[in-house]
Specification:
The structure is a single chain. The chain is an alpha+beta fold. The protein folds into 2 domains: 88 residues, Phosphorylase Kinase, domain 1, CATH 3.30.200; 216 residues, Aminoglycoside phosphotransferase (APH), C-terminal lobe (Aminoglycoside 3'-phosphotransferase, Chain: A, domain 2, Alpha-Beta Complex). Helix content is 45%, strand content 18%. The protein is built from 12 helices and 11 strands. A hairpin with an 8-residue loop joins strand 1 and strand 2. Pfam families: APH.
């Protein structure tokens, strides 16, 4: 807990809650609390953040109101403000009833895992399509700038990625495919760990606070890096559900570029968290490198279309 020495000084409407419970999950620098109202038993999530992100939070609030109009099963930002002690800010989010999908997915059979991924992909598609800002945006220059900046830091980092030169060559050889791309609102951290599932197998989306604007295919890099590690069937279903089986020819190539960038510089982040996260990160990097056969292919070797038939038969 970063801020919670005195709950009454940071939790808004402190006396209105019958229950306040710290949520020890995730790698965010925010503190998160589950709260339940005394009056109507409604449940919420409260995030406590640095006051330095107040402007960002205002923009998030305005953005989330636009998302609400899409009527998607995405956690809502109800209000935000300065904590009672004036040192931090709070964000009050709606509660999505259910359980963390990451911990539940393997209790379902393979066909069900695929179907759940398909639902998640459909939600993500509707989020992207409902918030397109530009139809033909050239991401090449911005990606090159980010590459140069991250490479400078990577060169100074003691933790190197195996086959880093080969990965960089793949990026440079394929970066031109990032021109004339849609520019839209992204969840920013869309993976199986930020999804909720209930007893009816309905899927809900949480932690939209990492949102940003960019290429919709970039959103799939966490699928290849995190979700696939838990369930390949889920991961395949998310791809098929996003496109409703009609996968464009450029999808896997573009996604592979974003994935390659992600794994090449991932240790810059994980090494700052600690040795255990760095070790997990290096294992994920090697897994993804093998999935793409050393980036000799654009399509990960676990993806196949047999799941389409299984999904139709199981529906």
């Amino acid at each position: 807990m970063l801020y919670s020495a005195d709950l009454e000084s940071i939790i808004p409407y402190y006396n209105n809650w019958s229950e306040i419970r710290f949520i020890d999950k995730g790698l965010s620098t925010d503190d998160k609390y589950y709260v339940k109202s005394k009056l109507d038993k409604q449940q919420y999530i409260i995030r406590i953040s640095s006051v330095n992100i107040l402007k960002r939070k205002q923009h998030e609030f305005e953005t989330m109101k636009k998302i609400d109009e899409l009527d998607l099963p995405i956690q809502k930002l109800i209000e935000f403000g300065v904590c009672p002690n004036n040192n931090y800010i709070y964000s009050l989010y709606s509660w999505i009833d259910g359980r963390d999908l990451e911990g539940e997915i393997l209790f379902y059979n393979e066909s069900e895992q695929y179907s759940i991924g398909f639902k998640a992909g459909s939600i993500l598609r509707n989020l992207h399509q409902g918030n397109i800002m530009l139809e033909n945006y050239n991401f090449i220059e911005s990606v090159r700038r980010d590459l140069d900046k991250q490479k400078e830091e990577y060169d100074l980092c003691r933790y190197k990625v195996s086959n880093d030169k080969k990965i960089m060559n793949f990026i440079q050889e394929n970066i031109n495919c990032l021109k004339e791309r849609p520019y839209t609102l992204l969840h920013g951290d869309f993976h199986i760990g930020n999804l909720i599932i209930n007893d009816k197998k309905d899927v809900g989306v949480i932690d939209m606070n990492w949102y940003k604007f960019g290429d919709p295919f970039e959103e799939f890099k966490k699928l290849m890096f995190l979700s696939r590690r838990v369930s390949k069937e889920y991961a395949t279903g998310q791809i098929d559900g996003y496109f409703n089986y009609e996968i464009p020819d450029n999808f896997f190539r573009i996604t592979a570029v974003y994935v390659a960038i992600n794994i090449l510089f991932s240790t810059l982040w994980s090494s700052k968290i600690g040795p255990e996260e760095l070790e997990r990160d290096l294992k994920r990097i090697n897994m993804v490198y093998d999935d793409y056969n050393g980036f000799s292919t654009n399509v990960p070797n676990w993806y196949n279309n047999k799941n389409v038939t299984k999904h139709i038969e199981g529906s």
